[in-house]
Design brief:
- 2 copies of one chain form a homodimer.
- With 243 residues, chain A is α/β, with parallel strands linked by helices.
- Helix content of chain A is 29%, strand content 26%.
- In chain A, the strands form 3 sheets. Chain A has a 5-stranded parallel sheet, with helices on both faces. The first copy, chain A, has a 5-stranded mixed sheet with strand order 7-8-11-9-10, with helices on both faces.
- β7 of chain A pairs antiparallel with β7 of chain B, so a sheet runs across the interface.
Chain lengths: 243, 243
């Protein structure tokens, strides 16, 4: 059977890799991925064929993986975090009808929401929304509508891609929308370089998050009306002690 | 240092355990958890002290873990999925001021949203909301408001705890709210026994999800306006091919 694994590496350099992901990498002849992730795992797989494509070449990367799998090689397409959350799993499925003999298997990884939450404390203990602030492929108006709806319904939010060179003020714009219905005192936090050297986190109120300088390697968390700070950590109660 | 690890086992019997979680379990003297999860891992840790409490005894379980850690033993509190998503991480933090010498470390696991998505295809490729339908600790009116807001803003939804003995019609009630703004043709899916023996999945339109009989071991996914079915799998495009 022709096989393409789409594998999540987790947020960091490998400590959050699952046993199933490690076994699939071991079983693969070729590992395909974005240049940065291939460099991260290069030393662990010295005997594998490694193929990389740069950022923005996602479609070419998935086509390459499907083509390689179609030759009979077992292929692993690696993604940071979880391939099923803003990763390559969807694009591989969308392209897969062109290579009908290749079987896809998605192997989940720890996404930045879960990895970052563990660093901050326990911000995602109740209903939450995950929103990417990147408007490369989503109209900003749609992102705004989602932020507004999530805030009005008192969801916790986790924001991916909160900033980039071209979108320096997007987190500020997002905070202004959230502040329409969330208190400025709402506990928030952000984590940079999750699971990597230089990992750091900050807990701060929503009013200050608006002024924070974050980069594209940062994941942002905004609490709900029950979120609190305990020992410097961001904690959203599930309700066990409150019922 | 007195240490309590709060560890995610992933959705199944162990194949999705991360390397970091495995190392923390190995480093622990005592493993504490809900009876069912302790039974799942009992054979893998024959030399560890294992302590369990039944369902609904979450507060007692977390207190026990903190008390044991305070005696100087290294303690692992295990949760299914991710301890930071409807797990025990928050409750441990809430109780932790009572045992100030105990340091908490949350080790993330694959939550059912990510584990189930990988089985179904790639439903969570775009902004999504995670909502628990359990009203044990959340007023049903708040759950309804969140479902309505998520549907109106065209989020993908992932529903935890979609049913129980006492709440047989909750998924139906949730679908009726989603149908106020989502098309009855919206691709949906559900996965039972993720990562365990008997794992199964179903892809079906929202109009039929309303009639589905699901149990508490099922995770439900509802697509956004772009979600489609490819080769029997539920796939939400990220937008790479559409831009």
């Amino acid at each position: 059977m022709k096989k393409l694994y789409v594998i999540g590496l987790g947020p960091g350099g490998g400590q959050d890799l699952t046993g199933r992901a490690a076994a699939a990498l071991e079983a693969s002849d070729v590992i395909v991925g974005y240049t940065v992730y291939i460099d991260l795992i290069r030393s662990a797989y010295p005997h594998k064929e490694l193929r990389s494509t740069p950022m923005r070449k996602e479609t070419e990367r998935c086509r390459m993986a499907l083509e390689l799998a179609d030759t009979g090689k077992t292929v692993a397409m690696v993604c940071s975090g979880d391939p099923g959350v803003y990763g390559m799993a969807g694009l591989c499925y969308e392209l897969s009808p062109g290579w009908p003999e290749v079987e896809l298997e998605v192997i989940p990884g720890i996404t930045a929401a879960c990895g970052g939450a563990a660093v901050l404390g326990a911000p995602l203990m109740h209903d939450f929304c995950l929103v990417s602030l990147s408007d490369l492929m989503t109209p900003w108006e749609k992102i705004e509508a989602r932020l507004r709806a999530a805030a009005q319904a008192d969801f916790v939010l986790c924001l991916y891609n909160p900033s980039s060179h071209k979108r320096k003020d997007y987190l500020q714009k997002a905070c202004d929308i959230l502040l329409e219905s969330k208190s400025p005192e709402t506990p928030c936090g952000y984590v940079s370089q999750i699971g990597r050297e230089g990992e750091s986190y900050t807990v701060l109120p929503l009013s200050q998050l608006r002024e924070a300088q974050v980069d594209m390697f940062t994941t942002v968390f905004v609490g709900n009306s029950q979120t609190t700070v305990i020992g410097g950590r961001m904690v959203t109660p599930r309700g066990y002690l409150q019922r």
